[in-house]
Write a structure and sequence with these properties.
two-stranded parallel sheet; 13 helices; 69% helix
Length: 249
């Protein structure tokens, strides 16, 4: 009896190309990997890749934007499932767990210069626009939380966004170094990151700890704020999705 073979759809073929390109980009770096490498690894003809991506830059920019979209979309899903996930400390923890140990997502999402090489310079307009939109979304996010009484207001929003970026960067960077006494368990490191961000930015504390508003009570009265933050980042996620799909011919 002959088994039928399901035909590969164009969409599945493109997903395969992008998966392979992401893997090669991390393993070889932007300068070394070629369209021919991607086609060979994906098991398709070079012309098929060029049919959808006219240049190497277009291919790898689509890879990068798709990864940005995945991370942002998962963040939105968490926010919609649990209002507490709009807090900076919870966002930092969840994203750390999401990408810290992913060998592809981590260097591409965090903009590893050794991996991205010239792509960061050749795609400066697109990536610069994405950075601008992410900053605007972050500014609006923190503004909503401050208005709801969930964040400290003893410094301005830009300073708080810098604090969040600095704490996040420190945790990701230290993961690459042999730090004596550093916890090996990823979940423990994520807990420490959450504590650091919460202590720096938030007015909320765990139940029973004096000095701030308890998380469940505060967020129970801020459901509208949580929904607004989720919608804010859904808009950003949709923009990123449109950007990488627009590059498919």
């Amino acid at each position: 009896m002959t088994r039928s073979v399901e035909p590969v759809t164009p969409e599945a073929r493109l997903e395969r190309v992008l998966d392979v390109a992401a893997d090669l980009l991390v393993r070889l770096g932007y300068r070394r990997v070629t369209i021919e490498d991607v086609a060979r690894q994906a098991g398709i003809g070079k012309g098929t890749v060029y049919l959808h991506f006219p240049t190497k830059e277009a291919l790898f920019l689509a890879v990068l934007l798709r990864i940005h979209h995945g991370v942002t979309a998962r963040m939105v899903a968490r926010m919609e499932a649990d209002p507490a996930e709009v807090l900076p400390s919870r966002v930092a923890r969840a994203m750390y767990l999401d990408i810290a140990d992913d060998p592809v997502t981590r260097p591409l999402y965090l903009g590893d210069g050794e991996v991205l090489g010239r792509l960061a310079h050749e795609a400066v307009d697109t990536l610069g626009e994405l950075t601008r939109r992410r900053h605007e979304a972050g500014h609006a996010w923190f503004g909503l939380l401050r208005d709801a009484g969930l964040l400290r207001v003893d410094c301005d929003v830009d300073a708080q966004l810098y604090q969040l970026a600095a704490i996040n960067t420190g945790f990701y960077f230290l993961d690459t170094l042999p730090v004596p006494g550093a916890p090996q368990e990823r979940a423990v490191r994520a807990d420490l990151l959450e504590q650091a961000v919460s202590g720096a930015l938030e007015l909320l504390v765990a139940p029973g700890v004096p000095g701030g508003r308890e998380v469940p009570a505060a967020l129970g009265g801020a459901a509208g704020t949580a929904q607004a933050v989720a919608e804010l980042y859904r808009s950003l996620s949709d923009h990123i999705d449109e950007e990488w799909r627009r590059r498919l011919r």
